[in-house]
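Self-study notes.
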Amino acid sequence: MNQSQRASTCVSSSLGRHPFHDAVADTAATPITAEYTGILAAADIFTHDNAWTLLESLRIDTGILGPFGNHP
């Protein structure tokens, strides 16, 4: 799935995603998508977004908030 196809399938794609985070999510989602497309319904649509959300959750939970992150 290329960038324009993914952008048309997910609502949050225009909310300021960083290209590095998209690349990491692509790396994580590619083998899952290849294995489960045709077996698991909508695996090709939601796997990238789920991988990106997991990456964001891990980044926030570990405190890697970027240059403007506030540490409580």
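Second protein, same conventions, sequence then structure:
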Amino acid sequence: MKKILFCLFFVVSCSHGQRNATTSDTLDTRWQMFIYDFGNMFKAVGHSYTRPLHWGGKQWGQFGAVVGGTGLVYLADDNTSSFIIGKRKVFQKS
């Protein structure tokens, strides 16, 4: 019973929100939204790229661990790939 009430509440609230969301859809408002979104996109990308400038010692340690772990996996991957390719050739000949 609770699930049915929850589903009913969800459907009613979504449909109510859609009715209130109808605004004038003119070229000017779309252009303003585009400019706003484009500006926010560049701000967010800039924020992401400047975050390492604000890192402390712990974050740099975690970064070093991730880079080191990735390097080790990369080195092991080459040997593992060669081993599997060699075994695959043996099985294909059989």
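Instructor comment on the second fold: The radius of gyration is 27 Å.
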